[in-house]
């Protein structure tokens, strides 16, 4: 089960960030500018966010493995179809379809892992997060070497084929903890339960904290390479910062969530998001590439822990009865932060001529996410 979940996470996040590597070649071939290339990625992220809410509802009331298997073919087909795109709209449509399929790359997986390992949820969710980090870290290393041989079209087709030939069989073979936790509950009863959650202050406080943290971490992911070049570093050094976040995030994924199993989820979030705020504030004031790299280490550790801790917090608050729906709704809120960070940060950089203000604003949003997290009071309910 865990191998299947990690495999899906590996490819879902690897493909998401592979676009940044393949995009320059696509831009030259299809005659796209930066704004149009960004539109293609927005199509992926937009459909991913919208579909995550639907997937969250489905995994609460249907067999989880079946839901994943319904969506994986969309992910594989959309990814492979990117290699056939001959225009902006064909690429946007293809990546949008991939985004719908990629919706099973997080919410169902965190529900699955927590059902299978209820006593050490933080620890095993951290292991799942390692799959995400390895996905974009590994493909980030492999794709530049593959590109000269197969081109960007061949690279997308290989990724699509790997998704179909690897993920679907390994998921079909997985066993354990796939049935809904309340198989006797009707969908009408489920929606009634979910509506009651919407009236709970902790849902909105936690969701806003997630939105703010997502905005903060996305600022570093969006601008670290360009910031490095602004400080005089070369192209390779800028890319190295992105990889640094991914691989250092493994430490955060395995460390802070494991601590949260003992110290409590709120304490884990306070530790993690404090590191995020500190790293972003230090990055804002960095005067050299090496200083930026040093502060990015703290950001990288927090990147590894942030998604895991909020996923575990959902079950602490609501048990298993509506965990998928709440995680899907929080993914919708977090997605707003992910979507807002690049354009708002870019406007600040253009207006000020430096990255200081953009990173300071991100540090403030990370600090605000701390304040909201401190107001959440997990009741650590167990599923019925």
TrEMBL record:
Residues in Major facilitator superfamily (MFS) profile domain copies: 1-381
Keywords assigned by UniProt, alphabetized: Membrane, Transmembrane, Transmembrane helix
SUPFAM superfamilies in alphabetical order: MFS general substrate transporter (SSF103473)
A molecular-function term among this protein's GO annotations: transmembrane transporter activity
Entry annotated with the keyword Iron: no
Listed InterPro entries: MFS, MFS_dom, MFS_trans_sf, Proton-linked_MCT
Entry keyword Transmembrane: yes
Pfam families: MFS_1
TM spans (from-to): 38-60, 67-85, 91-112, 124-143, 155-177, 198-217, 237-256, 268-286, 292-313, 325-345, 357-376
Recorded superkingdom: Archaea
Protein name: MFS permease protein
Source species: Conexivisphaera calida
């Amino acid at each position: 089960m865990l191998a299947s979940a990690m495999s899906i996470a590996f490819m879902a996040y690897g493909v998401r960030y592979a676009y940044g590597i393949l995009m320059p070649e696509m831009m030259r071939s299809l005659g796209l500018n930066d704004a149009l290339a960004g539109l293609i990625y927005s199509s992926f992220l937009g459909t991913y966010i919208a579909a995550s809410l639907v997937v969250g509802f489905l995994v609460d009331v249907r067999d989880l493995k079946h839901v994943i298997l319904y969506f994986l073919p969309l992910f594989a087909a959309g990814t492979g179809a990117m290699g056939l795109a001959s225009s902006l709209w064909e690429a946007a449509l293809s990546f949008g379809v991939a985004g719908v399929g990629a919706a099973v790359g997080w919410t169902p997986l965190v529900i699955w892992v927590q059902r299978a390992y209820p006593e050490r949820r933080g620890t095993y969710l951290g292991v799942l997060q390692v799959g995400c980090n390895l996905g974009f870290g590994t493909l980030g290393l492999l794709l530049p070497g593959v590109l000269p041989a197969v081109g960007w079209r061949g690279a997308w087709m290989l990724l699509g084929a790997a998704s179909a030939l690897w993920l679907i069989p390994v998921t079909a073979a997985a066993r354990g903890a796939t049935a809904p936790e309340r198989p006797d509950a009707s969908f009408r009863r489920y929606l009634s339960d979910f509506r009651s959650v919407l009236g709970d202050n902790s849902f909105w406080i936690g969701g806003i904290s997630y939105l703010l943290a997502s905005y903060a971490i996305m600022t570093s992911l969006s601008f670290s390479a360009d910031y490095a070049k602004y400080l005089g570093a070369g192209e390779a050094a800028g890319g190295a910062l992105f990889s640094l976040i991914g691989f250092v995030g493994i430490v955060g994924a395995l460390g802070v969530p494991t601590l949260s199993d003992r110290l409590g989820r709120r304490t884990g979030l306070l530790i993690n998001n404090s590191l995020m705020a500190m790293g972003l504030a230090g990055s804002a004031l960095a005067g050299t590439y090496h200083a930026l790299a040093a502060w990015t280490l703290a950001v990288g550790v927090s990147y590894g822990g942030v998604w895991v801790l909020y996923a575990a917090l959902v079950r602490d608050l609501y048990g298993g009865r509506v965990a998928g729906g709440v995680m899907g709704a929080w993914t919708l809120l977090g997605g707003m932060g992910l979507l807002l960070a690049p354009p708002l940060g870019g406007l600040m950089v253009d207006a000020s001529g430096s990255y200081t203000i953009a990173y300071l604003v991100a540090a403030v949003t990370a600090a605000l996410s701390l304040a909201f997290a401190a107001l959440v009071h997990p009741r650590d309910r167990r599923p019925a």
